[in-house]
Design brief:
- It contains 15 helices and 17 strands.
- Strands 1, 2, 6, 7, 8, 11, 12, 13, 14 and 15 form a 10-stranded mixed beta sheet that branches. A 3-stranded antiparallel beta sheet has the order 5-4-16, with no helix packed on it.
- Helix 7 packs antiparallel against helix 8 and helix 8 packs across helix 9.
- The longest helix has 22 residues.
- The radius of gyration is 29 Å and the shape is elongated.
- The protein starts with 7 loop residues before the first strand and ends with a helix.
- Bound molecules: zinc ion.
- Zinc ion binds next to loops.
Length: about 475
């Protein structure tokens, strides 16, 4: 069987912690537990004490509605929570309160989709459902899960709201999965329900199979970044088994960060003995409520994409790149709106500097824009100085490093004694110097016009990049003709 005959089928279950909720799903414990002393953010409800009664966090319903609208799900207007029974120390009451779309139960929203773009081709990743559930406690192992002599349990996380997003098995490659997660993260950013930069705020379980062979579930992929590597590893494992005519078992495996390993648990849906949670009243969401949430919904990426193109006369490509990162797009709009004299040329220039130089710097330094001191107005100033011809783009590029520290351009230029040299006499003097010092390159340049760039490079070196490139180019050509 050739490589191309293996058709990969992937379905994802993404658990997103709604970190922007201040309290837990069924009690008023503070959700800000990261870095806090273990078991200090807990109460009888999230500890599962007998007799304690859960109450639904209204804001969690609103956040789930926001996401359901962003994903275009069909929202179920009446549902109740279920108990998912299992025995494990991360849920001290021995059941997790969740939603269940069988036995008379309903998910929060059905269907919906996320549009991805691969090599310019759009594809809708269709969803099965989204639902709310509580996060279990955190089990802390000493070293590896298999060798740790004991386990510690921190109930600070127990009861924090999770939104589970389940796709249909329509993802065909690890790259598609990565792109789906990128777009999903974008929607989470825009709906403002969670900050997925928080450690452990998103966890993924993946169902992976090669068409015609049994399905494997890989659990505990603890970050979006790891999903692609986990999928790649598992697909290779399954293909190798098939190639060697070995049977690939239907099983649950655990991703340990490098490889997938079999898990001991053999739980099936019936083992969970789902039944309605009698301690909570059914939830009713009417049309009016949904419309209210919709009206308050922030602008979504698709709408912003269209608006940016119209408002700032940007190309689809530029607008798309800006929208891909909400904080960058916010930064852009603050910067270009700060100067009312800006027109399409400045809008484009600002976008170029932000997307190429600033974003390049952020990527090189592995930082987000919020982690730097750069202010939107600094790029506004940069664009103005470039337009007025007070600095060259070479100078601009050379000061990006200092700008990221929040230092004003004026100060940087003064400190480094940088200014654009546009004086024709001054440039002519330097050009003649360079011609005199480099007879070999000059004789080359007379024959091959391309070699002129080497001479211009020498001028730039002498002037530390401050000579205006256009004037230098013209002067060089004039002076060479005179020879
Ligand atoms: Zn609590």
């Amino acid at each position: 069987m050739s490589e191309t005959n293996y058709e990969v089928i992937i379905g994802l279950e993404v658990h997103i912690q709604l970190t922007n909720l201040k309290t837990k799903l069924f009690c008023s414990c503070n959700t800000d537990y990261r870095g806090k002393k273990p078991n200090t953010h807990a109460c009888p409800v999230c500890l599962g004490m007998p007799g304690s009664l859960p109450v639904v966090n209204e804001k969690a319903i609103e956040f789930a509605t926001r996401m359901a609208l962003a994903l275009d799900c069909k929202i179920n207007e009446k549902f109740w929570f279920f108990r998912k029974n299992y025995f494990y120390p991360d849920m001290s009451k021995n059941f997790q309160i969740s939603q269940y779309n069988k036995a008379g139960g309903k998910a929060f929203g059905d269907n919906g989709y996320v549009t991805i773009k691969m090599d310019g081709v759009k594809k809708d990743i269709v969803l099965n459902r989204i639902h709310l559930e509580e996060d279990p406690a955190r089990i802390v192992h000493l070293g590896s899960i298999t060798t740790s002599p004991y386990a510690l349990i921190d109930y600070n996380r127990s009861g924090v709201t999770l939104l589970e997003i389940v796709t249909e098995p329509v993802i065909e490659s690890p790259e598609e999965a990565r792109e789906f997660l990128n777009q999903l993260k974008l929607l989470v950013d825009y709906t403002d329900i969670s900050d997925l930069n928080f450690e452990g705020s998103c966890r993924v379980d993946a169902n992976i199979s090669i068409k015609g062979y049994p399905r494997v579930e890989v659990k505990n992929i603890n970050s979006f970044k790891e999903v692609e590597s986990a999928l790649k590893w598992e697909i290779t494992r399954q293909k190798n088994l098939i190639k060697r005519n070995k049977t690939c078992e239907q099983e649950t495996r655990h991703w340990d960060g490098k490889v997938t390993i079999p898990m001991r648990t053999k739980e099936f849906e019936k083992d969970y003995r789902y039944f309605p949670e009698q301690d909570l009243v059914p939830i009713e969401i009417n049309e009016e409520y949904i419309e209210n949430v919709r009206a308050k919904l922030p602008e979504m990426p698709r709408e912003r994409l269209e608006r940016l193109q119209k408002q700032y006369q940007l190309s689809e490509f530029d607008a798309e790149n800006l929208v891909l990162n909400k904080s960058i797009a916010d930064f852009y709009e603050l910067g270009v709106q700060a100067d009312s004299s800006f027109g399409s040329e400045e809008y484009k220039l600002y976008c170029n500097w932000l997307m190429n130089d600033v974003l390049g710097w952020l990527n090189d330094n592995n930082k987000s824009i919020a982690q730097t001191k750069l202010k939107p107005l600094q790029i506004t100033e940069l664009v103005n100085l470039l337009k007025q011809g007070k600095i060259t783009s070479k100078i601009a590029k050379s000061i990006i490093d200092e700008m990221m520290k929040g230092i004003s351009i004026e100060k940087i230029l003064k400190k480094q004694d940088i200014k654009r040299i546009a004086d024709k006499k001054e440039i002519t003097r330097i050009v003649r110097e360079v011609i005199e010092e480099n007879p070999n390159i000059v004789s080359d340049a007379v024959k091959k016009p391309k070699a002129i760039q080497a001479l211009i490079g020498k001028v730039m070196k002498k002037t530390k990049g401050q000579a205006d490139p256009d004037i230098t180019q013209n002067t060089m050509q004039e002076e060479l003709k005179k020879l």
